[in-house]
Write a structure and sequence with these properties.
Number of domains: 2
Strand order of the largest sheet: 1-2-3-5-4
Largest sheet: 5 strands, mixed
Number of strands: 7
Oligomer: single chain
Helix content: 40-55%
Structural class: alpha+beta
Length: 485
């Protein structure tokens, strides 16, 4: 997954340096907030308010305005009561109260929470265990497209070795979070908190983007545990440890996502994949997301090799280096198993670019004879897997490098050829047969329109696995780390 940095500008961390006592107070004061009457009343009022809101966030019926005002009054009173427990967010919470009051005074038109959004700067407080109270009218990616009032209690995941890793893989906008409690928009598959989802009058420079690694880790553990049992896969020790330890899995996903996210802006890119809004065939997004995952995989291989070489030479690693060595190895298992077991069979078959990426990785490894499905049992030749995974990353990187000199349509066609060299297209595919001249000579919209919703259907292996895993996949909606701890 990716943070949309269309309007992003880097911003140096200030509060941690200048106000350490505020950070420490905030970490301690907010413990147990999820059990307070103030939070529970805020959550209930936000939920009740959602029922009155239209998709754009407004409350269109005048007859509902008195109830809406009562709910807003409850929300603002709760924020005011809780504000002292989040001293690092005082400016944001004060602005939030003003935004709610202005919305009510404006007869509940389309909400505008720009002022409070600009005041919310969680990337300035990347301290392990610090909490935030987050209340905005927003939609939730992979959740609801309604821009309704959502309320969240979240906690930062930022262990010392991640802070050290971030000095090498600089990503000042990346915020790693754990879900504590939430309203209905996050009782879904959504695992991100992005500022661009908030209702606002104008688009400011976005300075942060957050991912809920506890949800990613919990989904991974539940899905991989079930899929490995179904496929009779003998998991390596490290991969098995991830299934037994939620906190270990969370830190592993933070490591993965930190490197993945920054990769969207780095490399030999023929275009800025997520910085320029453009409609492209979905398989191009598959390759971009997979490129970022495989870059994280490859960088973790390098980290592991570098630190093991130092150990071999008799050097003593620091505590943070030991942690980094451990998690760099675990990221490699996480990328492989999350991609082939969860991504490939999650979601609909309508332009499912993450699903396609999982299919592509599985087939690539199978066709290079390092993954085996024999006698209804899955097995890997682990000594050879790393080179095969890196080779797929290299193939995508080569596609990008060559496409710097290609027209966009030619890049699209070359990307399709890379995917179809591994996966079999739908028998009715116009792309597979060869696009007719009138499309090739026409606008790019014709190229995109000619792509089938399920251009690369599931293989027989994944069809069978999806049927057995369907209930497990569905059960991960709304999951939080404590559910499978």
């Amino acid at each position: 997954m990716s943070i949309d940095l269309t309007h992003a500008t880097p911003r140096a961390a200030q509060s941690i340096i200048g106000e350490p006592e505020v950070v420490e107070d905030g970490r301690d004061l907010a413990l147990g907030v999820e059990e307070t009457a103030a939070w529970l009343s805020l959550k209930d009022a936000a939920t009740a308010l959602q029922a009155l809101q239209a998709q754009d966030g407004s409350v269109p019926a005048p007859g509902d305005h008195d109830r809406a005002r009562a709910h807003v009054a409850t929300i603002t009173a709760a924020i005011e009561e809780l504000r002292a427990r989040f001293p690092h967010d005082d400016r944001y919470l004060t602005a939030s109260i003003r935004d709610f009051e202005r919305w009510a005074e404006g007869e509940f038109g389309v909400p505008d929470f720009l002022d409070s959004l600009v005041a919310f700067q969680p990337q300035e407080h990347r301290v392990d265990g610090i909490r935030h109270l987050v209340v905005f009218p927003m939609y939730t990616q992979n959740g609801s497209r309604d821009r309704h009032i959502e309320a969240l209690l979240v906690e930062v995941i930022w262990p010392e070795f991640i802070a050290e890793l971030e000095t090498e893989f600089t990503n000042r906008l990346f915020v790693s979070l754990r879900l504590i409690d939430f309203t209905a928009g996050y009782d879904t598959n959504s695992a991100v908190l992005f500022p661009e989802t908030v209702a606002m009058r104008e688009i400011p420079p976005f300075t942060w983007g957050a991912i809920f690694q506890d949800r990613e880790a919990a989904r991974y553990r539940r899905v991989v545990r079930a899929a490995s049992a179904i496929t009779k896969l003998d998991l390596p020790d490290g991969a098995a440890r991830l299934l037994d330890d939620q906190e270990l899995a969370e830190r592993t996903f933070v490591t993965w996502d930190l490197i993945h996210d920054r990769t969207h802006m780095r490399g030999d890119l023929p275009f800025d994949p997520f910085m320029i809004k453009q409609r492209m065939p979905f398989f191009l997004y598959s390759l971009e997301e997979l490129r970022c995952d495989l870059t994280a995989f490859r960088e973790c291989v390098k980290i592991e090799q570098r630190l093991r070489a130092r150990q071999h030479d008799g050097e003593e690693l620091s505590t943070t280096e030991h942690d980094l060595l451990e998690h760099a190895g675990l990221v490699q298992y996480a990328v492989i198993f999350d991609r082939i077991f969860r991504f490939a069979i999650t979601g609909t078959r309508v332009r499912n670019y993450d699903g396609l990426g999982g299919q592509l990785l599985f087939a690539w490894l199978h066709q290079r004879d390092v993954l085996h499905w024999t006698d209804t049992q899955l097995a890997f030749d682990w000594p050879d897997v790393t080179a095969a995974v890196v080779a797929l990353g290299d193939a995508i990187d080569d596609l990008y490098w060559r496409s710097i000199d290609r027209p966009k349509a030619a890049h699209w066609l070359a990307a399709y050829e890379l995917v179809r060299s591994v996966l079999t297209p739908h028998p009715a595919s116009a792309w597979a047969r060869g696009l007719p001249d009138e499309i090739l000579a026409g606008p790019l919209k014709g190229y995109t329109d000619a792509v089938m919703d399920d251009e690369f259907p599931l293989s027989m292996f994944f069809e069978a696995l999806e049927k057995k895993m369907r209930d497990v996949i569905a059960s991960t909606s709304g999951i939080r780390g404590s559910d499978d701890a």
